[in-house]
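Annex B. Sample input.
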Amino acid sequence: MRVIAPSPLRAAAMAAALAALCGNASALNILLTNDDGLSANVKALYSALKGAGHDVVVSVPCQNQSGKGASINYLTPLVTLSKACRNGAAAAGEAHSSR
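Annex B, continued. Sample output.
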């Protein structure tokens, strides 16, 4: 028996047809985080995921916190935020809804 692989165009057409049949049946609940704050990339990814029918929650720090997961604050007091949040993100303790 000889098996012939479908052409790339035919395979793409079959994948598109299958995706169209599935619709939003595969919508996901997604938590999107970024230690750099609310960047343009996070906003674009949020828009694309919402546009695809997914339920998306974004959780980001007000300011860039890149690398903080590996840092240690020793004998440094924690203080309240003194700067506004980056790119229109909700302030600490507040919720921001785009709905």
